[in-house]
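Reagents: none. Just compute today. TetR family transcriptional regulator.
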Amino acid sequence: MSQTSSSARLRPDQRRAQILAAARQVLLADPHRELTVELVAAEAGVSPALLFHYFGSKKKFQYAVIEEAAAEVMLRTAPDPSLPPDEQLRSGIRAFVRAVLEAPQLYRATLLMSAAGDPEIRALHSDLRRVFSQWVISAVAERGIEVTPVVELACHGWQGYVEQTLLVWIDDPTVSPESLEHLCEQSLDAILTTTSE
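Predicted 3D structure written out:
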């Protein structure tokens, strides 16, 4: 049976899901390679024109991929209440860093498009930051640290530090992923020590 007749049986939502799954496979195969319409179309077994048919434009396709990745990051970094507070925090930070390293070019594109003022990407990025920041602040409170305005500001600032650290590492990975995880974990503790002085 030809691929065309087989694909004709897919509903639009199924076809979109198939293309997004293909994008994920492309990222997993080579995380540092730029995610292009042509690569994803080839992985999905469709023409680039069909991909544009289902997503409308390259920008809308990129947004759909980033939106799905953001949802996965939020799910993976959600706190595990069965763990002690310190371990909740460490595991969440590690999960965030690992999720970024699985698709570094996608994360890089998200930050750059947000910084460039793309309204949809900026809103999505802001939502992701807000959810993650609130989770970190709650985890800090669970450790018995009083969440003063200074502590809250420090937690938000720490997330900006982590984003920039990851962005630099993506462009120039001079340390191991394990060292990167450790740096992101330890930097929060270091920043929090300054709030008690």
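The two ends are 71 Å apart (CA to CA).
Action item: order primers for follow-up constructs.
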